[in-house]
Amino acid sequence: MKSYKDKKVISIGVVSELTGLSERQIRYYEQRQLISPERSKGGTRKYSFMDVERLVEIANKMEDGMQTFEIRKEEKQRANREQVRKKMLRGQLNTAFPNQRK
């Protein structure tokens, strides 16, 4: 079950108000593949609370002088580390409980 923070239900206008970013900046971050809103049937962007937090983080990094490609690279590295960590944890659990598979 998805956490309420992961549900994409917030419009770009509300995200703009929450983050202090312009709608244009938010669209730019989407264009640079730093954020991925869902689209409604009518094409309206919908964001989650996690997206809002991510946008604030992106804005802070940009303010500190990072470029969008650096932020994207950093995010890919973090995701890769997380994936490796999960695999290692699964391996440890499989070793500790070899007959307990779902």
TrEMBL record:
Domain HTH merR-type, first and last residues per copy: 9-77
Pfam families in the cross-refs: MerR_1 (PF13411)
Keyword Metal-binding: no
Coiled coil ranges: none
Listed SMART domains: HTH_MERR
Compositional bias segments (type: Polar residues): 92-102
Region of interest: Disordered: 74-102
NAD as UniProt keyword: no
Molecular function GO labels: DNA binding; DNA-binding transcription factor activity
Compositional bias of kind Basic and acidic residues: 74-85
Keyword vocabulary terms for this entry: DNA-binding, Repressor, Transcription, Transcription regulation
Protein name: MerR family DNA-binding transcriptional regulator
Natural source organism: Alteribacter lacisalsi
Lineage, broadest ranks: Bacteria, Bacillati, Bacillota, Bacilli, Bacillales
